[in-house]
Specification:
Radius of gyration: 15 Å
Shape: globular
Order of helices and strands: HHHEEHH
Number of strands: 2
Number of helices: 5
Length: about 150
């Protein structure tokens, strides 16, 4: 199970990096919503990692400097892999969401949500890119595995 989860985070890391690069290459045609969504995608992974580890979290919709996105993505990846390798994925973590409501989920559930959330938002970003005349990236998992 851990190997499969690591594979999913490698996929997430790879296509987040490719999406950041693609946005950078087309920055003059990219709208604010696209910038907001790529930041949100990375922020969310940092937030879930930090909830698991009991660390300080980013804000859900904070805008980071564009130059920092590669490093945020890289640090997110390293932390997610460290969590997978060193924690019991069945452990349940109590946390508060961005509105202050308490929840409890297993580490596995939190990590799987992170991968799914990233995939969802990359799809939204691709739609926005297309609307702005930019070719979308093929970011489906099967393209990564090919």
């Amino acid at each position: 199970m851990k190997e499969k989860l690591i594979d999913l985070f490698e996929y997430t890391y790879h296509f987040n990096k490719e999406m950041i690069k693609h946005i950078a290459e087309n920055i003059s045609k990219v709208d604010e919503k696209t910038i907001s969504l790529i930041n949100h995608t990375l922020n969310a992974q940092q937030i879930w990692n930090s909830r698991i580890l009991g660390e300080k979290t980013f804000e859900v919709w904070q805008i980071n400097t564009f130059e920092s996105l590669y490093e945020i993505n890289h640090q997110n990846f390293l932390k997610s892999i460290d969590i997978i390798q060193n924690l019991d994925l069945d452990n349940r973590i109590e946390y508060k969401n961005s509105r202050g409501t308490k929840f409890e989920n297993s580490i596995f559930e939190m990590l799987f949500h992170t991968v799914n959330h990233s995939t969802y938002h990359r799809g939204q970003i691709n739609s926005l890119l297309k609307q702005n005349g930019i070719d979308p990236l093929l970011t489906d998992y099967i393209f990564y595995k090919r």
